[in-house]
Amino acid sequence: MIKAIITDIEGTITRISFVKDVLFPYAAKHLPEFVEKHQHTPEVATQLNTVKQLIANPMASVPEIIDALLNWIKNDEKVTPLKQLQGLIWQAGYENGDFTGHIYPDAFEFLSTQHREGTPLYVYSSGSVKAQQLLFEYSDYGDMRPLFQAYFDTKIGGKKEPKSYHSIIEQLPYSAAEVLFLSDIIEELDAAKTAGLATLQLWRDGQAQSPAHNAITDFNQYMSRNV
Ligand SMILES: CSCCC(=O)C(=O)COP(=O)(O)O
Ligand SMILES: [Mg+2]
After folding, report:
1. 119 and 211 belong to one structural domain
2. Which of 13, 61, 76, 160 gives 20 to 30 Å between its CA and that of 200?
């Protein structure tokens, strides 16, 4: 029996094009100035040091670090220091009203219903916890943060690695089999299933499907119990 739900964000409850065509370009546009300006604040300096390690260049200059980060944005690489910096950069965009966090209407209805009926909801996304909370605080439906119990990002591990799901389950008062993981990406669902979680794929944008996981095109199908 499912007692809790962990949801992915992009492609599952949020349109992929909102992330790719709105959030990523905003981050790319503002990242150089943001890094130049905040490079000495501890929160940013820690991430810049991690970038230096990842590009195996301990002496990398700020422009070289910026180039690496912009390249990762271009290739949609889920690299933790980039995701952490993106969260910090998007804050201004949300606060200035440049955009609101996209949530599919059926996803909002589903999450609200589950919350109302007492099913605890958790988030696991490659976007940083800060980025997740901003998206929900400034969502199309207003502040959705009260719907969620806790948030996980790649600080706990990559989403395609079973051990990340083991680590999350260790922090929850449920066994793996009692938790449903929602995602649009087969490799993430495979990793969750290997860790013992129940899985359900959201198949909204023609993503690859796998017979290993139930799939729905929107949450109305889940709510009418067609899965
Ligand atoms: C949390 S909003 C930003 C989304 C993002 O940066 C991202 O990489 C989305 O990855 P997900 O794991 O939610 O598919
Ligand atoms: Mg996703």
Report:
1. yes
2. 76
For residue 16, how far is its CA from the centre of ligand 2 (angstroms)?
Answer: 8
Is the pTM higher than 0.90? The answer reads yes
One domain for residues 43 and 138: no
Task: Give the domain extent around 123.
Answer: 4-15+101-223
The neighbourhood of ligand 2, an ion, using CB within 5 A, equals: 8, 10-11, 184
Instruction: Quote the ipTM score.
Output: 0.97
Nearest CA to ligand 1 atom 3: 127
> For residue range 33-69, what is the model confidence (pLDDT) as tens digits?
999 999 999 999 999 999 999 999 999 999 999 999 9
What whole-number distance in Å separates Cα of residue 38 and Cα of residue 13? 32
One domain for residues 109 and 63: no
Pocket of ligand 1, candidates 19, 144, 165: which has the most ligand atoms within 8 Å of its Cβ, to mutate? Answer: 19
Which atom of ligand 1 is found nearest the CA of 183? 14
Q: Collect the ranges in the chain with pLDDT lower than 50.
A: none
Task: Indicate if 45 and 58 belong to the same structural domain.
Answer: yes
What's the structural domain count of the chain? 2
